[in-house]
Each structure stands twice: as structure tokens, then as C-alpha cells.
TrEMBL record:
The lineage of its organism: Archaea, Methanobacteriati, Methanobacteriota, Thermococci, Thermococcales. It comes from Thermococcus profundus. Residues 3-132 form the MPN domain. GO terms for molecular function: metalloexopeptidase activity; zinc ion binding. One of its GO terms (biological process) is proteolysis. Pfam families: Prok-JAB. The keyword Zinc applies. This is Metalloprotease.
Length: 132
């Protein structure tokens, strides 16, 4: 599996992570073709927890993003967030979230690190990230 995202979008997410005192979060909108996940739009959301070690997206904001994506003929293909003090690998809380949102999770760090993950059959697997 691979995640294909515009270089400018990935750089923008990483830049936002570096400018924030808390974890940033949001959704990746796009389409899935075979084993490729194509990101057409990045939609940042507010971290309801305003925390440097966790994030939560408001359910009403989630509903707005889902409606927005549908109106554009897109779907939510991924979730993104930042880790400020640790590597871009899923935490225990992330894995719980991955069990609810069964799509690609992109994790970035303020220093420019990034990795994508998916939970398949109870196993966390890395997803190759390609920029275009």
C-alpha cells in the first residue's frame, strides 16, 4: 500500500506541526485506487484537547468534513496528526483510534519526520509515502 500526497501538502502539515504548541490533526481527503491512496486535499481540524501529547477531533467538525468531502466527490482516506516529542510511529492511543478510523494514518514531527501507517487484521503496518 502507498500514500500519494502533494509535496506542498506534506510540507504544509509539517510546518503547521512546527508552529504549534500542541499536536495538530486533521483529515486527508481523496480517493483510493487499488492499493494506492491519493490525497487530493488536506483538511486541518482543531485539536479539541489542545495537548502536546494527544489529539481529539470534535465529532461535529468531523461531520462537517465528511459532508465537505462528499460534496466534492471525495472521501476521507486518512487521518493526520503530529508527535511533538517522539518519533512518527503510532502510540497506544493512536492504535485505538486506528481501530475506529480504518484508513491511513500519517504522523509527522516538527523536525520534518513523517511516516504513514494502517491497521490491518489487528496489525500495524507501515505505508509507503510518495510525494508528487
Amino acid at each position: 500500500m502507498r500514500l500519494v500526497i502533494r509535496r506542498d501538502d506534506l510540507v504544509g502539515i509539517i510546518k503547521s506541526a512546527g508552529e504549534s504548541e500542541g499536536e495538530i490533526c486533521g483529515f486527508l481527503l481523496g480517493r483510493i485506487e487499488g492499493s494506492a491512496v491519493f490525497v487530493e486535499e488536506v483538511r486541518g481540524t482543531r485539536n479539541k484537547l489542545n495537548s502536546p501529547i494527544a489529539f481529539e477531533i470534535d465529532p461535529l467538525e468531523t461531520a462537517e468534513v465528511l459532508d465537505e468531502a462528499e460534496g466534492k466527490g471525495l472521501e476521507v482516506v486518512g487521518v493526520f496528526h503530529s508527535h511533538l516529542e517522539c518519533p512518527p510511529v503510532p502510540s497506544g492511543k493512536d492504535i485505538e483510534g486506528m481501530d475506529l478510523w480504518r484508513n491511513v494514518w500519517l504522523i509527522v514531527t516538527p523536525s520534518g519526520g513523517f511516516q504513514a501507517w494502517i491497521l490491518e487484521n489487528g496489525e500495524v503496518k507501515e505505508v509507503r509515502v510518495e510525494t508528487r
